[in-house]
Design brief:
The chain is of the alpha/beta class and 135 residues long. It has two domains: 84 residues, Spore Coat Polysaccharide Biosynthesis Protein SpsA, Chain A (Alpha-Beta Complex), CATH 3.90.550.10; 36 residues, no CATH class. It is 23% helix and 24% strand. The chain is built from three helices and seven strands, in the order ββββααβαββ. The strands form three sheets. It has a three-stranded mixed β-sheet, with no helix packed on it. Strand 2 and strand 3 form a beta hairpin.
């Protein structure tokens, strides 16, 4: 099983293609003309068969071994590759700015704002836990 997310610019991702009945028929890495807006988000639930498939991979046109090629080989060999669409938030964490943004978002959802002590000449944003020690 793979997780997919509808994205605005699928050209930047591995993309899923479906037939008219909604069955997965192809995966394409960074297509110039995407067959859908559904991107692979990097979460896969795979059997150990994937290791035998990976051993047979050849580097892509980018000189890299692509998970989309391995997933495509599973489809071509008639393995059942299911999918789920992710409807919540998701970020492409292949970029440092997005990693920082996700980190802040997760912390913001998990922390309750708590400030103990007096804060002088500082701005505090978001949900933070801060204990000011007076000397």
């Amino acid at each position: 099983m793979v997780l997919l997310k509808e994205v605005d610019d699928p050209k930047s991702f591995g993309v899923a293609e479906f037939d008219k009945s909604g069955k997965l028929v192809r995966f394409i890495e960074k297509p110039k003309i995407p067959p859908s807006n559904y991107a692979l988000i990097g979460i896969y639930f795979l059997s150990s068969e994937i290791f035998r498939i990976i051993e047979q991979l050849k580097p892509s046109w980018r000189g890299e071994y692509e998970i989309t090629d391995a997933l495509q080989m599973l489809l071509e060999r008639n393995y059942n590759v299911g999918y789920k669409i992710v409807n919540g938030w998701w970020f492409d964490t292949g970029k440092k700015d997005d990693i920082l943004k996700v980190n802040a978002l997760i912390l913001d959802e998990r922390l309750q704002r708590r400030i103990e002590g007096e804060v002088i000449n500082s701005d505090i944003e978001g949900r933070v836990s801060l204990i000011v020690i007076q000397r």
